[in-house]
Amino acid sequence: MKHLLALTAMALACTAAFAQDYPSGKPISIVVPFSAGGPTDRVARDLAEALRKPLGGVSVVIDNVPGAGSSIGAAKVARANPDGYTLLLNHIGMSTVPTLVRNLPFKVESDFEYLGIINDVPMTLIAKPSMQANTYAELTTWIAANKGKINLGNAGVGSASHLCGLLYQTAMKTEMTPVPYKGTAPAITDLIGGQIDLLCDQTTNTSPQIESKKVKAYAVTTPKRLTTPLLKDLPTLQEAGLKDFQVTIWHGLYAPKGTPPAVLKKLNDAVKVALKDPDFIKKQEGLGAVVATDGRIEPAGHKKFVADEIAKWSPIIKAAGVYAD
After folding, report:
1. First vs last Cα of the chain: how many Å apart?
2. Signal peptide: which range, if any (predicted)?
3. How do residues 212-252 score in pLDDT, each as one tens digit?
4. How far is Cα 111 from Cα 237, in angstroms, rounded to an integer?
5. pLDDT given for residue 229 in this prediction
């Protein structure tokens, strides 16, 4: 018994010493479960830069591991050594893969440590330039008159635009024909060309098209109106009558389950410093994102938020019968 207690004390002492020295000796890797160059990759690279200073100048590198609706990259982190040197930056997909992906090789709510929500990216409901409606009220009239004939584009099964479209159809109690594409770019190209009627996608992708008047914009998916000059006059879908309609593409940071508490605290403290970095905030605003400042930047708030999001999206995805694998 004494031998066991001695071994336990020794292990605790080693863990404490490791946590005190963290980070040192090697770079921290942030796994991004999407290809390089996309919106989530850009958020991760901005965050990596902002984390370096509060983490003592350690190198923070990006590891792109795309595939299977973000589950391949997330699984890599779930299996990683829980030492604080392998992290995951994922978006809303963290709350949808449990339903979208069959035989998921990890459990979102129990195989990760939560380090805080990073930002929210609003979404916009847009239409082809030839759309007759000029206001959201006119659009709802058009939708009612064209039931069964409406083509609703998205950037692929499980994408943010797909999820937004599913929620919109549910809220409107109107069936539309989903038209999936391999990414947002081809979907917007066909929207501009009139091959599809509607698209719901993040401001990161839609703002340039709205500004150049290549598409028509009708509403935003946030609880409050946006303050940016380009989008400030667009109503929210909530004020337009769709109660509790809210979709943002949020990003959160995670570590493998079992990462020492002292390491987690250092990481969360660094995240909170990074979120106040003026340069990081400016870069996020340039992406159309709003940096998180609420209780979700704390691990407990982050975990509760993800659980609520899973509960929100699971019945919608199941009802639609869609899967990402």
Report:
1. 50
2. 1-19
3. 999 999 999 998 898 888 899 999 999 999 988 989 999 99
4. 35
5. 87
Domains in the chain (CATH in brackets) are 23-121+249-320 (3.40.190.150), 122-220 (3.40.190.10)
Pairing of β 60-64 and β 28-32: parallel
Pairing of strands 86-90, 28-32: parallel
The tens digit of pLDDT for each residue in 50-95 reads 999 999 999 999 999 998 888 999 999 999 999 999 999 999 999 9
Tokens of 241: 């009558």
Residues with Cβ within 8 Å of 142's Cβ and at least 6 positions away in sequence, in order, are: 131, 132, 133
With beta carbons less than 8 A apart as the criterion, state whether 136 and 219 touch: yes
**Rounded to an integer, what distance in angstroms lies between the CA atom of residue 250 and that of residue 168?**
18
CA distance 286 to 21: 36
**How far, rounded to the nearest angstrom, does the alpha carbon of residue 195 sit from its chain's CA centroid?**
28
C-alpha 17/C-alpha 37 separation (Å) is: 38
pLDDT bucket at 2, cuts 50 / 70 / 90: low
* Average pLDDT rounded to a whole number, residues 254-279: 98
The identity of residue 179, as a single letter, is: V
311 CB contacts (<8 Å, ≥6 apart)? none
Asked if residues 195 and 218 have their Cβ atoms less than 8 Å apart, the reply is no
Q: What are the C-alpha distances in Å from 85 to residues 13, 24, 47?
A: 20, 10, 15
Mapping DSSP to helix (H, G, I), strand (E, B) and coil, where does residue 63 land?
strand
Residue/partner pairs of 51-54 with CB below 8 Å, 24 or more apart: 51/270, 51/271, 51/274, 53/273, 53/277, 54/269, 54/270, 54/273, 54/274
E-strand stretches of 128-205: 151-154, 177-180, 198-202
Length of the chain as a residue count: 325
Which pLDDT value is given to residue 201? Answer: 93
Which CA distances in Å does 311 have to 107, 159, 223, 306? 14, 18, 19, 9
